[in-house]
Amino acid sequence: MITYEEVSERELLEKAELLKVLGHPERLAIVLLTLNGEMCVKDIVETLGISQPKASQHVGLMKEVGLLTFRKEGTKVLYRVNNEIVKEIMEILFS
């Protein structure tokens, strides 16, 4: 088990921000969708039934904390969940 003394203030802030980003149901849904493969914002909009600006805002926040990775394919940007971050989240939640 990790103790308070083993964690820096910066790490605490980073983990808190990550958990805050995950605390929104639509962002959590995006994580679940992108676990199965890459998706563009258009796919996210169509699947979740949310507006394009809202989907883009969610994706932007998720990229900022490292939760999503992306690659460009022509003019399309494809997003996928960052498996390393998901592993960390599971350790936070279940250790």
UniProtKB/TrEMBL annotation:
GO terms for molecular function: DNA binding; DNA-binding transcription factor activity. This is ArsR family transcriptional regulator. Keywords: DNA-binding, Transcription, Transcription regulation. The keyword Oxidoreductase does not apply. Residues 7-95 form the HTH arsR-type domain. InterPro entries: ArsR-like_HTH, HTH_ArsR_DNA-bd_dom, HTH_MetalResp_TranReg, WH-like_DNA-bd_sf, WH_DNA-bd_sf. The keyword Cell membrane does not apply. Pfam families: HTH_5. It comes from the Bacteria. NCBIfam families: HTH_metalloreg. Coiled coil: none annotated.
